[in-house]
Amino acid sequence: MKIQNPSPHVPTYPHIVVRWVATVYAHRDVHFAPPPEHDPEHPDFDLYVDLPEPADRRCLNPGERAAIVNVALHRPLYARFRRCVVFGPDDVVYVEPDGSTDTGVRPPSGGLRL
Fold first, then answer.
1. Is residue 23 a part of any domain in this protein?
2. Which residue range forms the structural domain that includes residue 86?
3. pTM for this prediction
């Protein structure tokens, strides 16, 4: 049975999906900008890549793609969870808690979206 959030997130590319536990995940946006200053009262869960905004977010060069995967890999908040960088509807890179990565063609789907 698929459980859908009543207000589904309409993803932009690229974005990241964080799997908190089996069937529970969250979408996080990727911003091409320096990370904001840390504010403990208003944490920002999105990913920030300190690069200029690309002309076409769906046609990233290898350096831009590697930078996004690197940020996803090293974001301490997500270190214990499986992550998936979604570059397009059929272009993903899974980032495992052990630091390994694997390319794929299907982003996570179904389950409960936070």
1. no
2. 37-92+102-114
3. 0.82
